[in-house]
Design goal:
Helices cover about 20% and strands about 35% of the residues. By secondary structure, it is of the alpha+beta class. It has one domain: Clam (outer membrane lipoprotein receptor (LolB), chain A), CATH 2.50.20. It has an eleven-stranded antiparallel sheet with strand order 6-5-4-3-2-1-11-10-9-8-7. Helix 3 packs antiparallel against helix 5. The longest helix has 10 residues. About 10% of the residues have low confidence.
Length: about 220
């Protein structure tokens, strides 16, 4: 089993807060906003996310030092998500719909925090977070939509920027391909999604875990 560097633990916590390295982002001028509107709207982003009943996808995650690991993401409405890391990475990140939990099997520790205290809330509750706190970010391609979500009154919750590609086969006509999150300490992590599979059967048991403080065996 691989030992986990401290920077990657921060990265995994951001996978609960999920960050992507992206080009520099800026506020839109009026003409730029009009251009961005032609690429997509906040309503489009909400429709794309809320149109997902279940989703499985491969993910790759790169921490701020350039270390990359892969795994499988499973999402189920309402509010459930799981990041199962590749063999040899003793971490699990899972949400049961109300709280996010990171389980570190290397040191038998569990960290938990409310979904509302994480930028990931924008992904799990798009109607609340995207519509209330989102803004469109200019892109150079009308087939790419970028939405930055932050609560200006609670900067400690961080920022997430969702990146969509126009795809007629995806819910709402836009496919989430990656996202950008930044925590209050300016830590970034890159997460990219591939091999999207929508509408697959997902049991609620996928969002449970064995507490390593009671057993050292990792669930299969």
């Amino acid at each position: 089993m691989n030992r986990i560097p401290p920077s990657f633990r921060t990265s995994a916590a951001l996978a609960a807060a999920l960050a992507v390295c992206a080009p520099a982002l800026s506020l839109l001028s009026a003409p730029e906003a009009a251009y961005a509107q032609s690429a997509g709207t906040l309503d489009d982003a909400v429709a794309a996310l809320r149109g997902i009943s279940t989703l499985k996808a491969k993910f790759s995650q790169t921490d701020r030092k350039g270390q990359t690991v892969s795994g499988e993401m499973t999402l189920k409405r309402p509010g459930k998500i799981r990041f199962e890391y590749e063999k040899g990475v003793p971490l699990l990140v899972v949400s049961n719909g109300s709280s996010m939990t990171m389980i570190d099997y290397e040191v038998n520790q569990v960290q938990r925090w409310p979904i509302k205290n994480s930028p990931l809330g924008a992904l799990l509750d798009p109607n609340r977070d995207v519509k209330r706190y989102g803004r469109l970010i200019q892109t150079s391609n009308p087939a790419v939509m970028s939405v930055e979500v932050r609560d200006p009154k609670k900067p400690e919750f961080g920022i997430i920027t969702l990146i969509f590609i126009r795809d007629g086969k995806a819910p709402g006509g836009w496919q989430l391909t990656n996202w950008v999150a930044l925590d209050a300490q300016n830590n970034r992590t890159t997460v990219r999604l591939t091999n999207h599979r929508y509408g697959v059967a997902v049991s609620d048991s996928a969002f449970r875990y064995k507490d390593p403080r009671r057993t050292t065996r990792r669930p299969g």
